[in-house]
Amino acid sequence: MLHNSCDGGSSTDLHLPNYMDYSMDQCQNMFTADQKTRAIGSLTTLRASYLESNGNMSLVPPSTAVVNFNANSSIICIGQTVDFTDLSSCSPNTFLNTPWTGITFNWSITNNAGTTYTSSLQNPTIIFANAGTYDVSLTITNVNGTSSYTRQGMVVVSAAPVTAICTGTSTSTSTFAYGIYSVALNGMTHTSSSTYNDIQSGLTNASGYGDFSCEAGTILEPNTTYTIALKGTSATTLLEDFKVFIDYNNDGDFGDIDEEVAFFDNITGSSAYLDTTFTTTINPSLNVPLRMRVFSARNTETITSCGTTTRGQIQDYSVRISDKIAKVSISVSPNDTINYGTNLTFTASPTNGGTSPVYRWYKNNVLIVGANAVTYSSTTLNDADEIYCEMISNLADVIASPCTSNVVLMDVTGAVGLSNMAGKIEFEMNPNPASEMLNIKLLILNNKQATISIENMLGQMIYITQTTQQLNQFNISTFEPGVYFVRVQMGNTYSVKRLVIN
């Protein structure tokens, strides 16, 4: 038992959420009132020169902002809220909506049905009262000028999925360890607490059923393969089964062909995720929220979508299968292995680009000024140059635009003033997209040391490490959602792959 040294050694709980407690980082989320008073007192007296209001010029932006932002949810039900966070470069941020002298923020969040939400806060929270697919724009003005950025289809709002004809039941009222502790699918991660029948959002009922279809969801594509990952009991002495169902035809049951999408059989308890893949049906109900059910039971029981288990849980989520997700890929002619001076043409192939998509081409993560057509040509590419493009769609209700293409890595012989690569490094990277853990497998290492680095879209290196191991695992849960580039290098030889973090 822990004893509380702050109150005479009683057994009452320590203040675990306090930032100054020796608890895990995920437990810490607050200061005490007296700690807050002490910090404010120090900042406004001894450290007053740090404040912008007292003339701290280090907070003045050096240029116009490079606008970037994210949202804590992308698929929600009518009446729910979304928190938007400004992540722009060259723009100070307390994440508390503190106003800044000479800096303004203007958010415009609109759908094609005429609904618009606006805010002048740096990090607003918006209540979505109307259904629709929303484009989100942020414009920042400072003393150096105005810049803006728009993400199309960033938030999709709809009614809740069709009510299921049944919920399933767990008859146990004991605190056995069987259950569903975390579900992750295509950027959606919903984590339960560590107590059986107790879910973070408090929606699990006495029968072990929790409806999270308006709390957690994701957007998928038809006829596409995805990885679903689950955590069940962590007790290694227990065996647990899981089944996953999707109501593809939106009729309220899970009994139609192909609606059982995953089965985990006789899984030994572990604190690690277990995963499997499934392929969405080729002809689902499109662009509406569909109910997904995850059902767990001990391994001696049979799972059906409406069944009863004596040990386990049932959880419902939401998936929206869309045919309006923007994507783009690029190819190069004649090919990516050339002699220096060869005339190359890169061609973009868009999906859901609309009638007149806009393109931006990049070389080595730097925007190529004036390159905004569906093709880009060059005769001056050097060895190891990296080319990709960004596509901005004008399709109504498009989702996930702008989107970024694959990266073409050039292998050029005779490049002026540069030493050529002796060959490309082969490596595997999964999952991709990723949200928590990233695995990188170096296929040919030959007992040499490799450098693995991760860069963001601005070309800024945000992580670097050296390794002599073939298998490498990285925790990326603290990285902001977006597109990154993973580089593996040995000497003058390296390869780059694009990584999407949800």
Summed up, the helix count is: 1
**Major sheet details:** 6 strands, mixed
Indicate the low-confidence ranges by residue numbers: 196-202, 417-422
Distance between the termini: 39 Å
How much helical structure, as a percent, in the residues? under 10%
Supply the CATH architecture of the largest domain. Answer: Sandwich
Oligomer: single chain
Radius of gyration: 26 Å
CATH C-level of the largest domain: Mainly Beta
What would the average pLDDT be, to the nearest integer? 85
Per DSSP E runs of 2 or more residues, the count of β-strands stands at: 37
Considering the protein shown, what is the CATH homologous superfamily of the largest domain? Immunoglobulins
> Beta-strand percentage?
35-45%
List strands and helices in order, with pairings.
Layout: H1 33-44, E1 69-71, E2 75-77, E3 81-86, E4 104-110, E5 116-119, E6 125-127, E7 132-142, E8 145-158, E9 169-170, E10 182-185, E11 188-191, E12 209-211, E13 217-220, E14 225-231, E15 239-246, E16 260-268, E17 274-279, E18 289-298, E19 308-309, E20 314-321, E21 327-333, E22 337-339, E23 344-351, E24 358-363, E25 366-367, E26 375-378, E27 386-392, E28 403-404, E29 408-409, E30 411-413, E31 427-430, E32 437-442, E33 450-455, E34 461-467, E35 471-475, E36 482-490, E37 493-501
Parallel strand pairs: 2-8, 9-19, 12-20, 13-20, 22-30
Antiparallel strand pairs: 1-3, 3-6, 4-5, 4-7, 7-8, 10-11, 10-14, 14-17, 15-16, 15-18, 18-20, 21-23, 23-26, 24-25, 24-27, 27-28, 27-29, 31-32, 32-35, 33-34, 33-36, 36-37
